[in-house]
Structures are given as structure tokens and as C-alpha cells.
Amino acid sequence: MKYHETPISVRFNEVDAYRVAWHGHYVAWLESGRLGLAGMFGLDAFQLAELGYLGPVVNLEIKYLRPARFNDKLTVKTRVAPTDSATLIFESIIVDGNGTKLASALTTHALTDLNGVLQFQLPAVVAERLARMRTWLEQP
Predict the structure, then answer these.
(1) Phi/psi of residue 117, each to 5°?
(2) The CATH number of the domain where 42 resides is what?
């Protein structure tokens, strides 16, 4: 299964006193990758809300493997994992310009209506768009 790729450059304000990218910025980079992939299929945060649903993050797991530094050119690689519940699970890896893995992550988004009521099944419109995303990710 392939990944959607989002380029990132480590900016000066993202580097901490140790001269490496502060760990909290990885969360924003992961979000950029998720929104890039989901947006291609009408499922980014705003598009989802237009359909009458929200996808709040209910779980975030990051494994930091190597540091990113100022001006590094990174790629956030994102794909969606299969699930049987009304959740969206995104798998991501962040690599440097040499393809070295710097971090891996999983984010889980529960699907709710606009009032925050948890959905127990994927609505048809979301399921159809998610199916198109998976089909695209499975193409060589």
C-alpha cells in the first residue's frame, strides 16, 4: 500500500534549545499529512463538517526515532488503516531527504455528529469516500 506524501521544511522557530525540532511540532506535521490525504477525498476537517460530522482525535501515538534539524527537508507519508468501527485511523511516517525514518505515528479519530454524538457505523457518504481513498492507496 502506498502513502500520500506531504513535503515539510523544518523552520527556525521549530527548533529548540538542543538545536533539533521540538517534539510537539511533529503533531502539526502529522496533521498536515492527514489533511492533505483526506482532503483529496472530501474528508478533511472542514469537508467532514460540511457532511455533518466531526473527527476528533481520540488517540495519538508517536515514536521518535531520530531528530530533525533546522532546514531539513522532510516528507510526511500518510495512509489510512482499515477499521471495523466508525473511526478513521491514520498511519504516518516522517522521513528525511535520504529516506531515513525519523518518526512513526498513529492517530485515531472517532466519528461524531456536529453535536458530538458518537457514531457507531460509518455514514454511507463517509464510507464511500473512505473506500475511494483506500482504492487510491492500493494502486501502484
Answers:
(1) -80, 120
(2) 3.10.129.10
For the entire predicted model, the pTM comes to 0.94
The rounded distance, in Å, linking the Cα atoms of 139 and 15 is 37
Burial class from Cβ neighbours inside 10 Å (0-12, 13-18, 19+) for residue 44 reads middle
- Look at the block and give the residue holding cell 478513521: 88
Count of the separate structural domains present in the chain:
1
Give tens-digit pLDDT for 84-122.
899 999 999 999 999 999 999 999 999 999 999 999 999
**Grid cell in block for residue 109:** 479519530
Q: Domain span at residue 42? A: 4-138
